[in-house]
Design goal:
Its main location: membrane. By secondary structure, the chain is an alpha+beta fold. 17% of the residues lie in helices and 30% in strands.
């Protein structure tokens, strides 16, 4: 190897990617162009899928498409009230147990001609994460806005992104992206959701997916810090902000678990003045939440060549939380990241100051995330039961039966469904009220999984089929299935429940009514079985036919038939035995014609014998007795 090549190779080392960046194991991503009918590829070579995985709604186009740069920003899906107050994108086949970034683009642009930007909420995995309230800021209403967050899927492979109508407003969405990220990234705890409330890169314009060709493995876009930086840089007149750029590559970048990109550390800002000047940022927030601040530093000023030459303090909402000496921590041209959690803010603005101790402060970037604690979720087996009921009852879209039946707890999004929390921190279904909703299906057997159901009202619909055995939970107190078309018998499971009110009138049920069920009316409850011509055995019902029980024979009837069959078999066996014995006593085994000849000879012999006997008797009467001499 030549000396020239050796030095050339050494000079390239800072520019070579780290080993962690050579192999990135999280390669799942999906990009949905909401409202689009076809797949497409944008100018950044991102593949967009046509609209899919939605539960309802309609499509539209922004009113001024030429104002938007990308195709996925021009089409949209909206969810009118007729689609129900809860609609979702249910993304299937995600790697289970993974952590993901969700990125949405939301725009109104007067697509409906009503000049009224809508109010609605957005949830992820049953947690409300975005709240849009009318009127929107004019620039956002016309040009739209990107929003993103990090979330974890615990034990399944499906992600629910749901939209909730407020009043008569129609939620709207233009694009939806999900990107798998390192499961250990940005972890506060395993289940919290981190909602982006501001992410900026210092000393540069906005960059990242959708804005530039610069890559970020997590799909993060970075705003300019000028959007958040205070106009007052310090106390000294004439102080000003200075942007600086790295003269060579920065190391310790693009590494697990957060994979912060190299570009983030290639620019920074500092403050120039006579001394004492600080950098200040004001970040908009919502009160009563905790926030995760993630600071990004790199000493990219070649004049700072030793520890102690640049030292500054980080002050958050007036509290000194850390003293930073970048060179002391990692040296020069190396990334240094540090995070801090702000607890339970009482204000709508978060103030961050970098106050100098020695030299001037410097910063490459800052991220601010609201920490959304996980909301309660419905027990998985009850989610299965409710989805099965949705299919079997043919619940119409207008009732919004999408996503988690009980979450988020701030919404009663499944019309007619009431939930309550349990001691173990889960949600369960306690009441279903779907009377007079035009339902035309049947009751799924999975209803037995609703072990906390107290009241079920499906009256005045057109439901049919038999009543499932799972109906009759120990928790069930009230059951109203009146005015339907149910057939078959009443299951014994209803008799073993704690029912106090039972209304099965005006159906097509038949068979014997369980005695325990009839006792409900005696013990202070109420029961109505009228209008079922096939039911029998109750005080106001006709007597059941002899040996008849429910849809068939009673136990006594079955026993009687069994005994009769046994007697018949015995008689048949006895007759067969007699025939067999008689056949054994028949010694003539000749052929039919031989048997006839033998019978004729036997008859002649008998006649001759009879004649001889008569002749001997006649001779004896005349006194003539023949004498035989012995020889």
């Amino acid at each position: 190897m030549s000396l020239f090549f050796f030095f050339f190779f050494i000079s390239l080392l800072p520019f070579l990617p780290s080993s962690s960046s050579l192999h990135y194991p999280f390669n799942y991503s999906i990009h949905i162009d909401c409202g689009s009918l076809s797949n497409s590829t944008d100018v950044f070579n991102t593949s967009w899928l046509s609209d899919r995985y939605f539960t309802g709604g309609s499509t539209s186009v922004v009113s001024e498409p030429l104002h938007f740069q990308h195709p996925q920003e021009k089409t949209l899906r909206y969810f009118p009230v007729s689609s129900g107050k809860k609609n979702c994108y249910t993304i299937p086949n995600l790697p289970a147990g993974g952590r993901y970034q969700l990125r949405l683009f939301t725009v109104y642009d007067n697509y409906d001609g009503k000049s009224h930007s809508p109010s609605f909420d957005v949830s992820v995995e049953g947690n409300v994460v975005f709240q849009w309230r009318s009127p929107w800021h004019e620039s956002i209403s016309r040009a739209g806005a990107y929003s993103d967050l990090f979330f974890t899927i615990d034990d399944d492979d499906v992600a629910d992104v749901c939209f909730y109508s407020i009043a008569t407003d129609s939620p709207v969405i233009a694009s939806l992206e999900i990107t798998q990220i390192d499961p250990a990234s940005y972890l506060v705890n395993d289940s919290s959701i981190l909602v982006n409330y501001g992410r900026f890169s210092s000393g540069s314009d906005q960059w990242g997916p959708g804005f530039s060709n610069d890559t970020d493995r997590f799909g993060r876009s970075w705003q300019s810090d000028s959007d958040f930086r205070s106009k007052v840089a310090g106390v000294t007149t004439g102080a000003h902000i200075k942007a600086i750029s790295a003269m060579k590559n920065v190391v310790n970048v693009d590494k697990a678990p957060n994979y912060f990109p190299l570009k983030l550390y290639q620019t920074a800002v500092t403050v120039i003045g006579e001394g004492g000047e600080y950098l200040e940022y004001n970040l908009p927030v919502d009160a009563k939440l905790d926030y995760l601040l993630w600071f990004h530093f790199a000493e990219i000023d070649v004049s700072v060549n030793r520890a102690g030459k640049r030292v500054f303090e980080v002050v958050v909402n007036g509290e000194n939380v850390s003293r930073v000496d970048i060179y002391e921590k990692v040296g020069s041209f190396a990334a240094y990241d540090w995070s801090y959690v702000v607890k339970n803010l009482s204000d709508t603005e978060l103030n961050v100051r970098l106050v100098p101790v020695v030299g001037a402060p410097v910063i490459c970037g800052l991220e601010n995330y609201a920490i959304i604690p996980p909301d309660l979720k419905t027990l998985p087996q009850q989610v299965v039961a409710m989805k099965a009921l949705k299919e079997s009852l043919r619940v119409p879209d207008r009732m919004g039966w999408n996503g988690d039946p009980c979450a988020p707890t701030t919404w009663d999004a499944w019309e007619g469904v009431t939930c309550h929390p349990t001691k173990n921190g889960s949600l369960v279904i306690s009441q279903i009220d779907l009377g007079s909703q035009g339902l035309k299906g049947y009751i799924s057997d999975q209803i037995g999984l609703l072990s906390n159901l107290v009241s079920l009202n499906l009256s005045s619909n057109s439901l049919g089929g038999s009543l499932p055995w799972g109906l009759g939970q120990k928790s069930l107190v009230k059951l109203d299935l009146s005015n339907n078309k149910f057939t078959g018998s009443i299951p014994d499971s209803l008799a073993s429940s704690t029912l106090q009110f039972v209304y099965l009138n005006s159906n097509e049920l038949e068979g014997l009514v369980p005695e325990e069920l009839l006792s409900i009316g005696v013990h202070g409850g109420a029961i109505d079985l009228s209008g079922n011509k096939g039911l029998c055995g109750g005080p106001t019902l006709p007597d059941c036919p002899l040996f008849w029980n429910k849809e068939g024979l009673s136990t006594a009837g079955k026993a009687a038939i069994g005994i009769s069959c046994l007697v018949f078999v015995c008689v048949v066996l006895f007759v067969a035995y007699i025939c067999y014995k008689r056949r054994q006593n028949d010694y003539d085994f000749g052929l039919p014609h031989e048997l006839m000849s033998l019978a004729a000879k036997r008859n002649r012999y008998q006649r001759q014998k009879s004649l001889m006997t008569l002749e001997m008797e006649s001779q004896h009467a005349k006194g003539f007795i023949p004498t035989y001499n012995a020889t």
